[in-house]
Amino acid sequence: MDDVHFRRLARADFPMLGAWLAAPHAKRWWNHDPSAAAVEADFGVSVDGADLAEIFIVSDGAQPFGLIQRYTFADNPDYQAELGPLLAVPPAALSIDYLIGEAAWLGRGSGTAMIRAAVAALWKDYPMAPSAIVPVVAANRASWRALERAGFRRIAQGPLAPDNPIDDPLHYVYRLDRPD
C-alpha cells in the first residue's frame, strides 16, 4: 500500500464517518454514537477549529478507507495526567487515534500503512515533537499489532479509563521516538 493520502475531515464526510462508526468492527472499539447529530457534535468542533485535534480522512488513491486523529499532549493536559501513573509523557509528545472504516480494508496492512504515513507527517509537521505515544486497550490486539508493525514499541501497561465501558481498563502504551 504505497498511495496513502490524508485530507482534513470536512462536514461532507460526516455521513461516511457515521457509517464507519456504525460498522461492527469499528463500533466495538470506538464506541461513538453514529447518528448524524452525534457525529456533528463529536467531530464538528474539530472541523470548525474549536478543538485542536487534527482529523484526517485517509485514502489509498481516491478510495477513502479510514481516519487518523492527531493531537499533542500539551493540548490535552487531562489525558497527560491520566497517563502520569504509567509513564512520564513529554508535553511536546503527540498521540494518534486511528480507525479503518471500510471493512474490506481490514487484514490487508492498511492500518500499519496508515500509521506509518501519519507518523511521517507528524515528524514533518511537528519538528519539536520528541515522540508519538499511543495507549491502546489491551484487548484490541489488531490495533496494538498494527502499531508494532509500524515500529512502535510497548513501554508501559496499566489501567486507564477505556473508551468502551465493556472493556477492561488494562491498556498497553506504545511509543515511537523521532528518528535522528
Q: Can you summarize this structure?
A:
The protein has one domain (4-129): Aminopeptidase (3-Layer(aba) Sandwich). Helices cover 33% and strands 28% of the residues. The chain is built from six helices and seven strands.
Question: Which labels suit this protein?
Answer:
6 helices, four-stranded antiparallel sheet, globular, 180 residues, alpha+beta
Molecular structure report:
33% of the residues lie in helices and 28% in strands. The two termini are 25 Å apart. The longest helix is centred in the middle third of the chain and has 16 residues, at 110-125. The chain is globular. The chain has a 4-stranded antiparallel β-sheet, with helices on both faces. By secondary structure, the protein is an alpha+beta fold. The chain has one domain: Aminopeptidase.
